[in-house]
Amino acid sequence: MIRGKLFRGPLVFLVATLGAVLSGSASAQQAENPYTTGLDVRYGRDQFARHCSGCHGLGATGGETGPDLTSGFQHTSSDAGLFGVIADGIPNTQMSGMMLRLQTDQTVWQVVTYLRSITGGIRVEVPGDPARGAALFRGKGDCVSCHMIRGDGGRHGPNLSTIGSRRSPDELLSDLVEPDERVQPRWWRMNVTHRDGTHVEGLRMGEGTYAVRILDADDNLWSFEKRDLAESERIETSSMPSYADALNSDELRDLVAYLYGLTRGL
Question: Which stretches of the chain score pLDDT less than 50?
């Protein structure tokens, strides 16, 4: 699950542990959010703008005293924990509770729903072992050769440091077993041959009308004038192999659990 935390009142973001958040919050005893419709999102947005934007900015993009919340939260891993922070605040911080002002559980839950809607949706429990998934990422799967996490890894695939804030577990599984389904132009490759016989294949770093830049497998950056190329092919499929056969179902679950836990809040 993801970590995250919220606020209310003159909100300053959460820094307490989940235990501290939930202690003393009788209203947060309900584990599941019963208010998750589109109407609830809109009402929660209005309440956030009225009570929370002074610290966290309009749209939750950050303010003078509160952090940007659009990419996830820092500590809480459940909607109930998020409810507790918003309703009761964080002791010994500027993050005060909103319950006295909002008065009803429903309104607090609607603020939770709004915040989940701008951070990749409501977090869900996932099967699998993140620790085993991390070992697969660096070992059998060899994902680290192409993907960077917090400054460590390769540059031939997307940075995954906060991928869990942007992708659901189902989407992550699809990325692993059907990597050609959603390949952004940023990750297309080029296969070119210069008229002097030089052949280069690699990541398409930039392409214009007259020139192309390519990052090869050894991280060498090449630049070619298109008029000097004898052959040029743009490859719009993914360079990542499918793991449908390379990993068994348990290993795929572990790897998804690891990736889903990669968020800005960790």
Answer: 1-29, 265-266
**Two structure tokens written together for 23:** 């202690």
Query: The whole model's pTM is what?
Result: 0.55
124 vs 32: CA distance, rounded Å: 11
Which of 1.10.760.10, 3.30.450.40, 1.10.10.60, 1.10.10.10 would CATH assign to domain 130-182+241-260? 1.10.760.10
- Identify which of 32, 258, 46 has the alpha carbon closest to the alpha carbon of residue 136: 258
pLDDT on residue 188: 92
CATH number attached to the domain at 18-117: 1.10.760.10
The residue written with tokens 């002074």 in the block is: 54
Residue 223: the pLDDT is 97
For the chain, domain boundaries = 18-117, 130-182+241-260, 185-235
Tokens of 38: 């589109």
Name the nearest CA neighbour of 1 among 84, 82, 97: 82
